[in-house]
Amino acid sequence: MHHLSNGPRPVGLRIERWHRFCIYGVAAWLAGSGVLWLVAHYFMRPVTEFGEGIHPLEPWSMKLHGAGAMAALFFVGSLLNIHLRRAIKAGSNLASGWSMIAFLAALTLSGYGLYYLATEQNRPLWSAVHWIVGLLFPALLILHIVLGRRRSL
Fold it and tell me: What residue ranges are annotated as transmembrane (predicted)?
């Protein structure tokens, strides 16, 4: 027997399991490779007879981070229709959701800036913005997930 409801139908905002795992995996990949670069760059630089050198993990962590960034752009784009549009329409979890969008935009723009726009003079600023926002992002992602699950109960 089916019940017909006169009220609005609940909107499904939960992302499919495989999709969630891909998004969480890419987020972990980016956080890990970003932290690896920070550690190699700031704490593992070898001192040679010619001055401070580049640790071998720096370029490798950067290559891994760039690959993860491309995957992240794909998966964030995949959320636009199935999650983002529906959440806005339902008015659900908007504060943390819009914060996620702002953080992702800042990471994308600062990553682009580091790769294409940074000069020797302003590279430290581009870098600091990117890694500070990047270090804060996992906490925001977890907060967004927790708040979303609470509202769906």
Answer: 21-44, 64-82, 94-116, 128-147
